[in-house]
Amino acid sequence: MNILIVGLKNNDQLVRLKKEGEKRGHQIKGVLTSELVIRTGRNNFDPTLRGEPMTQYDLIYLWTLGKRRWEWYTACYWLSLKGVKIVYQKTVSPDYLYYLTPAIDYLRQYQNNLPFPKSAIVFNARSVSSILDDFEFPLIMKVSEGRQGKGVFKVENEAELKAKINELKDVSSSFVIREFIPNDGDVRVFTVGYKAIGAMKRMATREGEFRSNISQGGVGENFDLKNRPEIREIAEKLSEITRTEIAGVDIIINKDTGQPYILEINPGPQFTGFEKYTGVNAALEIIKYFEKINQE
After folding, report:
1. Domain limits, the chain
2. Is 212 helix (H, G, I), strand (E, B) or coil?
3. pLDDT tens digits for 178-221?
């Protein structure tokens, strides 16, 4: 196969995917989202990589798109009509009108009776007072598009919460307010094709740091899903109902009650840390999934 990875270029994850792909006879190229150029007129609609045809690829994986997602979704919808396989297909399917946002995530979790912390979505600080009767401080506040632990804060009172929202109002269109779950870390379950291939427990190392993300200085260790099969079931169900084909599902366990709660689901998850701590060859599992999709 000729495979295009969108959003990965010159990093360790792309190196891993190329290595495993080349072993199995595939060619893999990574590009930045900014390389998309759509040439169009009355008689043509032609998505290219700065002039390079994209119909030459057998499969395109939308790893991460950022602010350019809508143009990429449109381009890949058109390419899917031309026979190119798209991984992260939900974003380019006309029958699935919602994309990965906190609102649709929570709706899907609610509809499917999945456990997640009590939460609220607001657009500005003026709305905060209307939801505080449902919560107790401290609370977790995060920007809607935050990933890898970025844009996530622990706040101790109403004034601090409102100040943080006002500080970030120009970088995020909405904010998630969530009850704080006492914990000693969280669990990242890696799913490929809606099936868990392994999990790691992540723990913060800095005093006072509540985020356990590896990218924020956390450390990891293998987490045996055989001991907590309900966590596997939650992660697989969530990836399926949100149509996130390759995902990092973050689950937190209340250290007092043992109850698991969904924190979030991440498309295009980093996997080098996951491979390091679990010994699972995530790059190979992803390549195998590409092969399966290409045969369908």
Report:
1. 2-92, 118-179, 186-295
2. coil
3. 999 999 999 999 999 999 999 999 987 666 556 666 555 678 89
